[in-house]
Each structure stands twice: as C-alpha cells, then as structure tokens.
Write a structure and sequence with these properties.
The chain is an alpha/beta fold. It has two domains: 46 residues; 144 residues, 3-Layer(aba) Sandwich (Glutaredoxin). Helix content is 36%, strand content 17%. Helix 1 packs antiparallel against helix 2. It is globular and about 35 Å long. 30% of the residues are buried. InterPro entries: Redoxin, Thioredoxin-like_sf, Thioredoxin_domain, Thioredoxin_ResA/DsbE_sf. Keywords: Cytochrome c-type biogenesis, Disulfide bond, Redox-active center. One of its GO terms (biological process) is cytochrome complex assembly.
Length: 196
C-alpha cells in the first residue's frame, strides 16, 4: 500500500471510530458483544504501535501481572484482590465525564455481588489527589488502584490500545480475560455483561 493510501485507511478507520463513539448512547447494537468487538477492532486499527515488550491482552489471555498502588500507597497485585472470583476492572479518571456517570452503576453492581460474586476494581489513570477529591463526592466501596497514564500503562496491558475511557475488562475465576468493553455501562447493562 502506498503511504498516502495508508494515511487514508487510518483516517477512515479513525473517522469510523469517531462515528461509532458519537452514536454510542443511541445505538443499542454497540452494547452487544458483536458491537463491542467491532468497536475494539476499530480502536485497534487506529492505535499507535505498542512500545517494545508491551502486549495488549485479548479474550482468552491470562490476566497480565499488574501491580499498582492503592490510595494508601500499598502496592497491590491485581490477581491477588479476589482469587478464585471473577474480576471486573474498570479503567477511569476523575476528569472523564462518562466515567463519572457510570460510577454509581458500578457501585450498585459491586454491592450486589456479595462475597462470592464478581469483584469490581477501579483502575484510575489519575493523580491520588484527583481520585480522593472525586471519591469524596462520589464514594465507592470497591478497591481503587492508581496508575500514571502513558503508552505502556496498565490499561494498555489490559487491551486498551487507544487509551479511551472508560474501559472495562472482565476476568473469569480462572484468571483469564473474558471480555473487554469500550465506553460506559448504561443503567442495568453491567449485570448482563458480567454474566456472559
């Protein structure tokens, strides 16, 4: 392919991703597994090259070895948070409008899980101060881990190659990536999504 053709292909893919994002709230198809796979493929097609040694997880892959600090500065291994239970990792930031809108829904879902259900974990691409300020206004009971945004941050290892937020990953009880989702959960959507 000629260089101009490559640029055109990337521009078309980026335009398609932008169009998909613009009708996100009005298009229920994008909330289906097929829609999510198409959106993930469009994001991947326009993603920059990953840094050397970084591998973005895909469904079926084991959860990457991710160790991050919590709000108290304690380093936490993601796989050690709820061994033997499914894990829903939600990547968010205090400055992300759709992230903020879905937090109450994630909190509701987390509270309904009990001790054997899906464990929700927030992965904030943010500063400790930004997260603390946000959580003072919108408290959640589930664990929050901190990460500095960048081309090789934990969300990239979880498959978020474009750095779009919010981004969620469902990990099964055996520690394998089961699903990935770009965009916020609508009211009640996370219940069905986490069951599959």
């Amino acid at each position: 392919m000629r260089p101009g053709g490559r640029i055109l292909a990337v521009a078309l893919a980026a335009g398609g991703l932008g169009l998909a994002a613009s009708w996100w709230f009005g298009n229920p198809w994008l909330r289906t597994d097929s829609g999510q796979r198409a959106l993930q493929a469009a994001a991947d097609a326009t993603a920059p090259a990953l840094p050397p040694g970084v591998r973005a997880a895909r469904p079926g892959d084991p959860l990457p070895d991710i160790r991050l600090p919590d709000l108290d500065g304690n380093v936490v291994e993601l796989t050690a948070i709820a061994p033997g239970r499914p894990l829903l990792v939600n990547v968010w930031a205090s400055w992300c409008g759709p992230c903020i809108e879905e937090m109450p829904e994630l909190q509701r879902f987390a509270r309904e899980q009990g001790e054997d259900g899906v464990q929700v974990v927030g992965l904030a691409l943010d500063t400790p101060e930004g997260v603390r300020g946000f959580l003072a206004r919108v408290p959640v009971d589930y664990p929050i881990l901190l990460e500095t945004p960048g081309p090789a941050d934990a969300s990239v290892w979880l498959g978020n190659t474009r750095g779009l937020l919010p981004y969620s990953v469902l990990v099964d009880a055996q520690g394998r990536v089961a699903k990935q989702k770009l965009g916020p959960f609508a009211h009640g959507e996370v219940d069905g999504w986490a069951r599959h």
